[in-house]
Amino acid sequence: MTLDAGGTNFVFSGLKRGKRITSLIVLPSNADHLEKCLQTIIDGFQKVKELLLPERAVAISFSFPGPADYLNGIIFNPPNFPSFKGGVPLGPMLEDYFNLPTYINNDGNLFAYGESIAGFLPEVNRGFKNMKLKKKFRNLIGITIGTGFGAGVIVNNQICNGDNSAGGEVWLMRNVLEPNIIAEESVSSRGIQESYKDLSGLNDSLSPKQIYEIAIGKKDGCQSSAITSYDRLARVTAEALVNLVGIIDGAIVIGGGVMGASELLLPQILKYLNSTIENRKEEKISRIISKAYSFEEKESKQKFYALKPEELNVPFSFREIEVFENKRIPVGISRLGTSEAIMLGAYAIALKEHKEKV
């Protein structure tokens, strides 16, 4: 049994052999009321348990926003769950209630893990195989843009949790447009809304979807302000990715509700990733070592795979070796859907833990 825990809604489901075998159960999270929130979690899993009959659940594995001690299933003061102040041993609570092993991880981690198993990363590597290129990606940066700005990092096909269950906390990065605030204030649904209000001078309470529709001319409003609002989000997102790519050097997959506007966001993210910066000598330097290619554009994807290995002579030897000189990274949107990727990641974690215990 699994759950995608968002600040607005909880999405419950049951999985078997990596496939969802129940309908999705969506319940309001009640994030600001602890007793209601915990009861909602129990009720959601109870409904999944009933849907699974006559089969029986063997584990609970799901995502929950941090900060947290994920190893011990304790959640500490998540920004989007104010009622969890002081810490809540959520994992032990569910273990005792359902008498099932319970695993919790960060939603960004599980999103990235799911995409690394059966989504974006396998697609990238299938392309190398089809092109008969001796190359394989094992690292993936997964970010989600929705109620908040989340991230997960996969290194050598393993989740990088960090020693304090605090790996991938991208939301806390400095905001390049407003250096005194965090990146999440711009990279989130509220970031889009506040930006549009500031730029347009209008006090309308519009959703990110409505602002997107204004940007593409489908809805009346200040189109230039709507376009700039999404551009600002792309700029701050790209700056965070520059820092992550500089350390991780892997593929990038992006999910979350705001990515419904990917046609506005992705080209701008690529533009900023492939932009330049100067040193003290005023020399232009690429923001990232590798060049970023969009997997949502056919031509860009074809260029990514246009790799020609060079043959280098080994000094003092008759041997030659192949080398790929031009470094490149693929960037794309979620192949599984954010909730499905998170659920698959949670399922895979539970399966892995079970096998290790056996």
CATH C-level class of the largest domain is Alpha Beta
Beta-strand residue percentage: 15-25%
Q: What is the CATH architecture assignment of the largest domain?
A: 2-Layer Sandwich
CATH topology label of the largest domain: Nucleotidyltransferase, domain 5
Q: What is the 3D form?
A: globular
Strand order of the largest sheet: 12-11-10-13-19-16
Q: Please state the CA-atom Rg, rounded to the nearest Å.
A: 22 Å
Please tell me about this protein's structure:
38% of the residues lie in helices and 20% in strands. The protein is α/β, with parallel strands linked by helices and 358 residues long. Helix 3 (107-118) runs parallel beside helix 4 (120-130) and helix 7 crosses helix 8 (262-273). Strand 1 (2-5) and strand 2 (9-13) form a beta hairpin. It starts with a strand and ends with a helix. The longest helix is centred in the middle third of the chain and has 26 residues, at 223-248.
